[in-house]
């Protein structure tokens, strides 16, 4: 997982530009618009496709890593990485505030969204890195806090013939003004195996 190339923020394209961005030449601080989100139908009955994602191509055999830090203090504040085919086919993964705690999770959407998550209260207000790695028929999602070991978050199907993009994303479904500091955006080769100890 070390042969990564650092992307300049200008090398990627915004899907739904945020309220504001600020950069010191290295980090990118993003401020969200009001009630921004990505979700399709399931349970809630609504569709939202107005969250913020800064995307670059994700070909089969490549991976994207995103590092971010955010003070998530309102329900459903969230940040991480997105994999996008179109408005009905996408994955978002990262940390989201729900039930009063930060949770590590993923939403996989193929017409309808699903949601898997696990509490990570010890990750609050700390740098988190999310890695999405694309194989010939699936995306492997891993995450870690600081320099801790990688955790496998999800293995999700993604057909190899589809054109996809990936990169940092953030949303604030219940408010305006979540600030997320993205400190790294890299691309490189995909993991060679599902399990992290074999994936290097």
UniProtKB/TrEMBL annotation:
TM region positions: none
The protein, known as: DUF1349 domain-containing protein
């Amino acid at each position: 997982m070390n042969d990564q190339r650092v992307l300049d923020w200008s090398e990627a394209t915004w899907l739904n530009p945020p309220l504001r961005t600020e950069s010191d030449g290295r980090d990118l601080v993003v401020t969200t618009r009001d009630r921004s989100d990505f979700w399709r139908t399931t349970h809630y009955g609504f569709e939202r496709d107005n969250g913020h994602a800064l995307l670059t191509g994700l070909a089969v055999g490549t991976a994207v890593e995103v590092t971010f830090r955010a003070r998530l203090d309102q329900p459903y504040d969230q940040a991480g990485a997105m994999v996008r085919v179109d408005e009905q086919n996408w994955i978002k993964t990262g940390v989201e505030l729900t039930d009063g705690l930060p949770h590590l999770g993923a939403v996989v959407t193929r017409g309808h969204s699903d949601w898997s998550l696990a509490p990570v209260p010890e990750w609050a207000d700390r740098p988190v890195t999310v890695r999405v790695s694309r194989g010939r028929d699936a995306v492997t999602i891993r995450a870690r806090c600081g320099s801790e070991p990688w955790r496998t978050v999800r293995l999700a199907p993604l057909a190899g013939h589809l054109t996809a993009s990936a990169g940092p994303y953030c949303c604030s479904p219940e408010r305006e003004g979540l600030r997320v500091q993205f400190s790294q955006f890299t691309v490189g080769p995909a993991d060679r195996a599902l399990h992290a100890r074999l994936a290097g």
